[in-house]
Amino acid sequence: METEERFHLQLTIQKLEEELTLYRNGTRAQHFMDIITEKDAEINMLTSAATERNGKLKQLARSSSELVTKYNALVVEKEG
Question: What is the rounded distance in angstroms from the CA atom of residue 7 to the CA atom of residue 50?
Fold first, then answer.
């Protein structure tokens, strides 16, 4: 399972546990829905941040790979 998928599942589980706790504590329906909406927005923000971070990491890996390739070519050229 990918790290991002695991992250989404952990967020969903946390959200459901919080909803269940509120329900068991007798929280009114409207307040309950407000909290769910707030948590949904929070999850969307965290998911967006994680996706952005993953994109930056992939870009960094790609540029690092290119740099290593260029370095190896220079070493070969210098030796030859």
Answer: 9
